[in-house]
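U., I forgot to send this yesterday:
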Amino acid sequence: MEEFKFRGKPMMTERELHELNIKHENGWVYGNLVISDYAYFITGGFAVVNDEYASLEWWIRVDKESVGQYTGLKDKSDRAIFGGDIIEFNDQSYARTGGHMGDQIIKAEVVYEKAAFWADGYLLIDAECNDEELEIIGNKFDNPELLEAIE
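Result:
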């Protein structure tokens, strides 16, 4: 069974993450998602669990807009693809502009809708998207200029 994994940008600096000994990658934390009435949190695993008590290793409040779920796919460089990533791939089935068959480079944001992950109308697990050709070129949170370029 594939584990559900999320990432988010903490509401603190990388320096504060280091001081708290919280593992991160370029300021992104990875783990489970907890949503409360007022905030989103990414949590680590359980530190202590018994019949009466459970304690998390850590929990960090994250920016709601930065949260993305792992798609279960990796790009050609073996990097995990998350919702909110901006990917580039070669559409070998149909060129949308011009209406002719051929190769077209597609740049799109990975989104979760209709119980699946999509990029510009292409189902990511579909044969239309060959994961050997998928490449993460950024994400909507750190690289909003990439979204402007594809809209």
